[in-house]
Amino acid sequence: MQVKGNSFQFAQLGIQRGTKQLNEAASTIARDSAEPKDINSALVLMIESRQQVEASVRVIERSNRALESLIDLNA
Fold this sequence. Notes:
The chain is built from two helices and no strands. Helix 1 (7-30) runs antiparallel to helix 2. It has one domain (7-74). The chain is an all-alpha fold.
């Protein structure tokens, strides 16, 4: 199986998806007609979205450190 893309691209996609989910959850909460069950689900989705974005940021940070190490080795 061949994977196309790199860690930065996958992390960026994770950030985009996480922020999209966060916006959707915030919209659900902001609606006046939202029922308590909808609000609870939206709050859980917000937590999951935040964790997804945080994980994607860590991927970028670690990839950056790995590249810096490779550059240092070649210098």
